[in-house]
Design a protein that fits this description.
mainly alpha, 2 helices, 38% helix, elongated
């Protein structure tokens, strides 16, 4: 007698470890855990190597001078002018005269 003759139209039950859905979820969890572990290892290794070389990360270099002047500029400029005007780019030389048409 076959399963169809007995009235069982459902697929035969497979083992828990051979179920494709369970196996797919298991492999996704394993790959995600490996990826997260790899990212943590890379970040830790990079931080350790930078600390060993006494180097810093971040964008602090944007607020420091380069240590040399620009050799050619259309406007009068020096590296010291940036230090004086950290709050903004405007100073008395760049102020527009009243009534120049554009608010400034």
């Amino acid at each position: 007698m076959t399963t169809r003759e007995m009235g069982h139209d459902a697929a035969p039950r497979v083992s828990f470890f051979n179920d494709p859905v369970i196996r797919g979820i298991f492999y996704q969890v394993v790959v995600a855990a490996l990826l997260v572990g790899f990212i943590f290892w890379i970040v830790g290794n990079t931080a350790a190597n930078l600390a060993a070389q006494n180097k810093t990360t971040g964008f602090d270099f944007l607020w420091k001078t380069a240590g040399f002047d620009i050799s050619f500029s259309l406007l009068p400029w020096s590296r010291e002018s940036v230090r004086r005007h950290r709050g903004g780019c405007r100073d008395e030389r760049s102020a527009r005269p009243p009534g120049s048409g554009r608010p400034g």
